[in-house]
Amino acid sequence: MAKVAFIGLGVMGYPMAGHLRVKGGHEVTVYNRTSAKAQAWAAQFGGRAVATPREAALGQDFVFACVGNDDDLRQVTIGPDGAFAGMAAGAIFVDHTTASADVARELHAAATKVGFGFIDAPVSGGQAGAENGVLTVMCGGDAPVYEKAEPVIAAFARACRLMGPSGAGQLTKMVNQICIGGLVQALSEGVHFAQAAGLDVEAVIEVISKGAAQSWQMENRYRTMNEGKFDFGFAVDWMRKDLSICLEEARRNGAQLPVTALVDQFYAEVQKLGGGRWDTSSLLARLK
Ligand code: NAP
């Protein structure tokens, strides 16, 4: 049993922190910007809610975070009353935010300088993965630090792996998002075509999902897509944030991402349709 803190009790963080308490059996302190959520978490799981990230980090073995983007992460770590000011020497900060590799390296360097560990550890598996404690966690950082963090992360993970030095977790998550973007566009075009051709979409998917066109997105999203419902997971606003991180990194490393760039623009159109909070399968909506 370790002393841990969790910063950012959103869709993902709230259940992840819950697993640290219930499954991991750890002593958990929470911080959330909107304090009512932290109070609710503490009442539900039996932990301590505090007023600042710095206070949350004081005296902990591990501090976890899952906030929105690079700027949010900087605010809760190195901003005023940020967690880094409260970290003890030898403690470990594990960041589950999907952010840039740059900010991971910047915070890793800041942490190393004052003697505590930092692991970038973005996740995949969505809200259901967080609630069921079966996330995939892609990590970057120093091996001895990672080895100490992995058994604690296990409370909410089905798979967890060190991918390389600081930033490698975020780079791996970028690959994940690049693979999803083009695939969802292709699935949208397939469903759109089937509808236009007057086919029975259910029957079409039932057949083709047994063959080479099969994908997680196909199996889990085709039905709601066919019904024009887009309220089932990862939001377009978040996806655009992630794709912009991928495109910026590709400008630097020279990778060519023509389809990813196009799909990013398609998601911009979905946002204009009012779909910023729709799930990523809403690429279909702009084909109508
Ligand atoms: P969310 O529900 O919007 O929660 C975001 C959390 O971060 C909230 O607790 C929010 O506090 C806090 N926060 C944001 N900006 C902050 C700031 N400047 N200072 C302090 N706290 C701040 O988001 P989420 O769905 O949990 O996603 C969190 C991260 O996981 C994102 O990077 C996202 O891309 C990634 N992710 C999400 C999914 C998914 O399916 N949702 C899947 C994989 C990865 P308040 O409560 O005060 O707003």
Polypeptide structure, described:
The chain has a 6-stranded parallel beta sheet. The chain folds into 2 domains: 3-164, NAD(P)-binding Rossmann-like Domain (Rossmann fold), CATH 3.40.50; 171-287, N-(1-d-carboxylethyl)-l-norvaline Dehydrogenase, domain 2, CATH 1.10.1040. Strand 4, helix 4 (70-77) and strand 5 form a beta-alpha-beta unit. Helix 8 packs across helix 11. With 288 residues, the chain is α/β, with parallel strands linked by helices. It has helices at residues 13-22, 35-45, 53-57, 70-77, 101-114, 126-132, 143-153, 168-196, 201-208, 216-226, 236-253, 258-272; strands at 3-7, 27-31, 48-49, 62-65, 92-95, 117-120, 123-124, 135-140, 157-164. The model has no long low-confidence stretch (mean pLDDT 97). Residues 8-13, 32-34, 37, 66-68, 72, 75-76, 97-98, 123-124, 126-127, 233-234, 238 line the site of NADP nicotinamide-adenine-dinucleotide phosphate.
Care to give the gist of this entry?
This protein is of the alpha/beta class.
Along the chain, the helix and strand elements come as EHEHEHEHEHEEHEHEHHHHH
The N- and C-terminal alpha carbons lie at a distance of 53 Å
Give start-end ranges of low-pLDDT stretches.
none
Tell the overall outline: globular
Major beta-sheet overview? 6 strands, parallel
Please write out the topology.
Layout: E1 3-7, H1 13-22, E2 27-31, H2 35-45, E3 48-49, H3 53-57, E4 62-65, H4 70-77, E5 92-95, H5 101-114, E6 117-120, E7 123-124, H6 126-132, E8 135-140, H7 143-153, E9 157-164, H8 168-196, H9 201-208, H10 216-226, H11 236-253, H12 258-272
Parallel strand pairs: 1-2, 1-4, 2-3, 4-5, 5-6, 8-9
Antiparallel strand pairs: 7-8
Helix pairs in contact: 8-10, 8-11, 8-12, 11-12
The structure holds NADP nicotinamide-adenine-dinucleotide phosphate.
